[in-house]
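Why does residue order matter? Because the sequence determines the fold. Keep that principle in mind as you read this record.
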Amino acid sequence: MKPTPHRPQHGPVIALTQLITEYPELPPLQWHLTTSGQLGADRHRIVPNDGPADVRAVLAAYAAVLGADPTEPFLYMHDGRMIVSQHIRTTWRDVPLNIATYATLAEYPELAPAVAA
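Structure:
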């Protein structure tokens, strides 16, 4: 449902409700909604016990439902640790949606050789 100028959060709230109602099997995310109606979600796996062990499985589940492809992994340093971020940027029910995942490099062992080089 497209946001209206007078109620920019209305459409995103309805879209989110529809998404989690129609696909209850999707893993939980930390959802956020800006005052301008931007809908987003995060899944962190940066410290132990901070969520599912494989953020890629979480991202894949949403990508399959939303018909979107995750971005290529983006690596950056944070507090002395290499962090890997991936996103899904798409539109769901006329609402722009950005889902982001963050994990340590340990969750992406295939990327370790590129970092070491």
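The mean pLDDT is 85.
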